[in-house]
Each structure stands twice: as structure tokens, then as C-alpha cells.
Amino acid sequence: MKRRFVENFLPPAATFLLTTAAAEFGIRAAGISPLLLPTPSAVARAALQHSPTLLPALAMTAQAVAVGLALSIAVGLLVAIALSTSRWVERAFYPYAIFFQIVPIVAIAPLLVIWFGYGMRAVVAAAFIVSVFPVIANSLAGLLSVDPALRDLFRLYGASGFAQLWKLSLPWALPNVLTGLRIAAGLAVIGAIVGEFVGGGGLGVVVLEAMRQQRTDLVFAAVLHAAALGLALFAAVNATSHFALRRWHSQETEP
Amino acid sequence: MSRLFGPHLVVAIGMATLLAIVACGSKDAATRDAAGKVALALNWKPEPEFGGLYEAERIDAFAKRGLTLELTGGPGAPVVQMVEAGKVEFGIAAADEVMLARDRGTDIVAVFATYQTNPQGIMVHAARGLHSLADLFAAGGTLAVEPGVAYTKFFEKHYDLAKMRIVPYGYSIAPFLNDPTMAQQVFVTAEPIAARRQGADPQLFLIAESGFNPYAAVVITTGARARGETKRVADFVAALREGWRGYLDDPTQANALMGQLNKEMDAETFRLGAAAQQPLIEDAFAKQYGVGAMSLERWATLGKQLQELGLIDAPPAPQDCFVQVEALGSAPQQPR
Amino acid sequence: MSAPDPTAARTGVAVRVRGAHRVFRSAGEADVAAVEGLDLSIAAGEFVAILGPSGCGKSTLLRMIAGLEVLDAGSIAVGDGGSAPKNALAYVFQDAHLLPWRNVLSNVALPLELQGRAAGERRDAAARAIASVGLADAARRHPAQLSGGMRMRVSLARALVTEPRLLLLDEPFAALDEITRQGLDDQLRALWAATGMTVLFVTHSIAEAAFLAERAVVLTRRPARVVLEHTLDLPAQRDAALRGDARFAREMSVLYQALRRGNGEAA
Lengths: 255, 336, 267
Fold this sequence. Notes:
The structure holds 3 protein chains of 3 kinds. Chain A has helices at residues 2-30, 40-49, 51-84, 87-102, 105-116, 120-144, 148-156, 161-199, 202-212, 216-245. By secondary structure, chain A is mainly alpha-helical. Chain A has a single domain, classed as MetI-like (MetI-like fold, Orthogonal Bundle), CATH 1.10.3720. Chain B contains 17 helices and 10 strands. In chain B, α6 (95-103) crosses α16. Chain B is globular. Helix content of chain C is 33%, strand content 22%. The radius of gyration of chain C is 18 Å and the shape is globular. Chains in contact: A-B, A-C. At the A-B interface, α1, α5, α8 and α9 of A face α1, α5, α6 and β7 of B.
């Protein structure tokens, strides 16, 4: 267990420290204006100094992301199940799901504010729109990849459609659903921030204010908070995946 | 193991590239200087606020002095950063932006102030029967402003904003038109006119009336250029002043030019906008010292205000913030 | 290795295949006739091996008998009625095909679960089936923790948990090593002897067919038709030593010749 900790955390930690140190000295040596590219130490200072603003903003963004992501999972899974029922249904409706993938959120964010009003609802909508498609696409792929022999087995014993879905297809698709979730988590953060640019609140507004007030170090600090949020979600999905799938694959099992 | 190093290597290379690009930025301006080309970054679309610039171009005021104007930028352009990095020689910004940049350690100076009175304001529906900004804040409702603008902090300090719901301004008057309790930031030459044309009855409160009055549509450049290339800057400002003289006397042709570039504004709006901004550009001070002239007193006041609002740590010396160029005549260097 | 107890009740069902036809059509490609006019009769409680070259349609035949594949023409009768009642049939695939998220006990109990039997009943029946294949210790383990041979035994236990009257196996031991395979062959014959169910065993191994079955049916290459139905002239008691016996080699030769004939080669 200790060896795994060292193996997994030491390389990225070491690279992070090296890159940060290199950036600090490099930026100073090159004499780059703090307005253009602040040093890591300046960003850290800004993060500490402005934590009374950053932390509540982070909480707001995190809340919108959580709700948006929850909606993406629920709706995404239901849509994937519906699409998996027949080839005809899939061909008829899948292109509309792709719409969620290609619509540029920056362009429709103002529309979201018109429909949902300023504040949390529009931001949640933005987070949902950008994060739902990976859930649909990956879950559908998982549902359609069920072992045909197992399908035969279920048919042989007269299992109902619901029994097949609940006892076979959904558990089978779980790794794919989690993969989709991994992607959706990061996208939900992006969607929320863009939504906040137009709808107000959270880290998005902090970024706009900081840019307006020439505080590039604060811009970076806010962006890092958003990145940390995305990273935390990613780690959470990974942990869930590890816990849920640990019996499935021989690598995960202790002999 | 290598799987973990791979992405980090990419990040390190990316950062190094970014550093290199940024460090090499100043080379661009040097090549441009030599050719007599002058690059200027705008912070909005072609509208009456830039009327003098387009008029100067039209009457060859720049060409006469051996300068070729290259306009760039637009809404959302990071003008201060572009000037700082040497991507452009001049830019259009607000006076408070100049002070903020100086506070962050950047040597940016102003050479020309288009507006003596700040043209930003808050627009409300006249039907609400409000007489002042104080009335508005007492009444409440939604207020759409660009996040982070200095005057929001000014309002927070001098008024009780508990009843106001502050939301980001999306540069569209549609929410305002649809909601009678909504207020929004405006530029005197644009939104109020557009709102009236769409049948609304807007009432305008200039932020300058509340005591916060930074110069606006200020032409900025680097301190090094303002102090080192005095002839070039003087020529530029002189050309610009000629253009403004022409635009103030008759804006029609420059408006037509700008109308070609900015299809979102029609000729009538251009005309009304030019008329609305006239008193804000040429007041008693500008009549005496020339359009674009600035005073130490105004900069000193702004410095104190920004410090009070916590936007800067210490006010920069007023005389460092701007350069009074010879071409503008004898403007006072002493506070009046 | 025990022979079937003649006094035990024959619980197996008979199977009658008459003129079975199956053609696979796919757009833009030529039709593939898998089975064409095939007749086959299997008595209740018989152990029959079906031999044939790869791709000849023997899997398709098995699937048709199981009701997993439709017939384009002809008929298949299982037992007294038309098609088999749902709990009389069991099928063992080429790979174990276990649910990786369930443990062994839960996997074996699956057929009973799908048929709506109560939890306690399921658990007991599953435990019995697991014991009958000698995996009682592994009941709580997950498929990922088992070897290939053990997984196949779990698959076998799953097939037996409903006490089927007809057991269909499609080359179930082909992917296993020789020792494991022979061990499972023995186990299968013992289970057949104990239950008296009808067993249909598809294989392309002549040795396996000869060792396991009472009767071997040799099919031609595609489209499948019967070349030879041969009752094996071997003792009812089959043990490992039999494989080295001259009689065994002779029976294998008979089957081999039939295979070659069916494959269109000179006998």
C-alpha cells in the first residue's frame, strides 16, 4: 500500500514542483510583466489574499456543477437506455443527442439566461448541456456491448426485458458509464464557469472581475480553483470506479 | 512510470513556449515603428466614441505626418496587455484601468482623454419615477453591469446596495426591455438611444453625477514610448486632435465610414450618439486647453478614490499617469 | 466412472428434428445455408455427441433445439409437447460467460432467480449444484479469481441448477488444457449418470466424442446434413485407461472416416 502511494503520487508531485520552480525562475528571469504572466508565487499570494472571495465562489460553482452533473447522470442514463431498446429508436434520436455535444455553450449561454433567469438555474443548465453527451454516448456503447451469449442465457430462462436491463445490461455497462462520467465531470466545470460569465455568481464572475481589474494573478488563482474542482471530481469518479469494479478484473483483486 | 511523465512533459514544453512567445512580443512593435505604421487597439466596435479617430484618418491627418494608422482590437480585447506586450503602440482604455495597471507594476501612461465627463451611466425605466441613483438603490431590482468595473465598488461604498441584485451585463438591452424593474449599465452614445428607438422610455443617470468621474476613451501607450519617442507621440496626438475637431464640427462623414464597419448601428443612432456625447467631450476645460487635455487634479482625485475602494494599494503620482503632450497647447501641470 | 443406473428414472426428454432448414441472410452478401434438411432423433436420457468440421452448422443446430434460433423450415420437437417448457432446458456455451460482478453462488443461482424462485430455495439449489462440480470452497469468490477450468465448472453448475431434462453443450471444454478437459469430461459423465438427463454435446474433438457419448452423430460440412449416426461400441464404464485401448482407437477411426466423407474428401 505504501509502495503504491509512492508510485502513484511521487512522479506527478515531483514534476509539479519542478515545473513550478522552473516557471517561477523563468518568468522572473525573463522580466515578464505580472499583467501578462504572473509567477506561481504571485498566484499563490493572490489565492491566499482573496480566499474570502474565492472560497465562497468555489462553493457556488461546485454546487452548480454538482446539480448539473447529477442531472447529466440521470438524464444521460435514461436516454441511453431508451436509445438501446431498438436500432430504429437509436437511428431516429441519436443525432439529437449529438446536438448537445456540438452546440457551442458560449453562444447559447445568453439564451439560457433568458429562459432560466439570472443565477443558479441558468448555470446548472449550462453545466448540464455540456456534460450530458459523454454520459449518453458512453452508457449507450456499454449497453449495446453486452455479451450476446449472456443475452441468450437470459432469454433461455425467460427473463423479462426489465430483468435483462436491471440484472444484465446496466451492471454490464457500469465501466462505460463511469468512463462517461469521468469526461462529464471536467466538462461540467467548464459549462458552469461559462454559464456564470453570463448568469452571474461563482468563480466565473471572479474571473471576469479580476480581468477587469487587471489582477492577472487573481485570474490564475480563480482558474486554479476551478481546475481543483475538476480534479476533485475526477478523483471521486476514479475512486468510485475502483470501489465498484474491484472484483471484476484480476488486476484489482488481491490474490 | 513514463505514462505519468508524458503529460507533464507536454505541460512543461507548453509553458516554455508561452514564455518564449511572451518574451519575444516586443519585437513586433519595433518592426512596425520603422515602417511609419501605427497600430492602435480599440476596446469596442467603431462607434461615436472613436469618431475623432476615424475622422482624422479620413482627412489624412495621420498621413500628413507620415503615419499610417492600423486599427485592431474590438469588444473584449485586452488592450492594456496588448500595449504592455508591445503588440500595439497605442490603445483605448479607461483612466481607472491606467491606474490599476500602474499599481500592478506596469508602466502605462495616458496621452489623450476623449471624454472630460465619463459617458457611462445607469439606465432605468422612466415609469419607475426615480430621480437619482440613490432612489434606484433604495427601490431595488436587478442591475446588470460588467463584472469588476470600478464604479460598482464606488456604489457599494457610498450607497446601500442590499436591495439590488447585481448580474453580469451581456451587452444586450433585451433583458432591460423585457423587465420594467431592470436597470443596466449604459454608454451614453449607445444603449439609451437604442432603447428609445425600440419604444422604451429610458431614464439615464450618469455615474459622474455621483462623484466618480474617471476620464474615458483614453489613449494609452507605454511610459517608455511617451517619454522616449516624444515626436512620434506628439504627431499622433496632434493628428487625433485634428480629427476630433473635425468630428465635433461635423460628424456626418466619419459616421458614414464607421457605419460601414459596424452594421449593428444605423445612421440615425450614430447621429444621435454623436450629439449626445458632444458636451461630455468639449466642456469648458477642453475648450480652454484643447480636446483630450487632462489635469493633475482629476488624476489625483481618481487615485484617492481607487485607493479608498481597495482597488489599488497606493495611488500613483498623478504626474506619472499621463503625459501632457506639447501639441495640446499649454495645459496646466499644477493642480487648479 | 459410473454408468447410468438403469433403475433410476429416466428424467431426460427426447428430441425430434425433422427437415430443419436455416439460412442466414445479410444485405449485400450471398445467403449462407447453415442447416439444410437435417433429420435427427434423440431418445430420452441419451448422451449424444455431435461431430462436424468447423463452421458446419452444428452450433446453429444446437441453438435451434434450444429455441435461441428460429427455423426457416422443418420442425423440432422436444419432449411430448412442441418446444421445451422453460425449465427443462439448459445450455453451456463455449466460454463460461459468467457475470463478473456476481460471486460464484450468485452466478449459479441466476437461472432460478430469473424464473422467480425464492431466495432461500435458490441458495440451497445453487449450493448443491456447486458441490456437485466440486467447487464448494469457491462459492464466495468472483469469476476474476478463478482459473479457466473452474469458471467452466461454474458454468456447468449454473446449467445444472434448474435440474434440466435436456442439457445442451457447445464445445464447452475446447479452450481448456488436456488434463482439466479430461477431468471435466469425467465429471460430466458422472452427472449424466446421476441425473438421467438427455445430453447433446457438440464438439470437434473425435476423442472427446468417442469417450463421452453413447452415440455419435457426424455432420457434413456446411450446409449440415447427417453423414453417420454411430452407436459407440465401448463399455458403459468409461475410465482414463480406455483412451489407450485398441477399441477406442478403432471407434475413433470410424468417426474420423465419416468426418472426412462429410467434408467431401475421399474416404
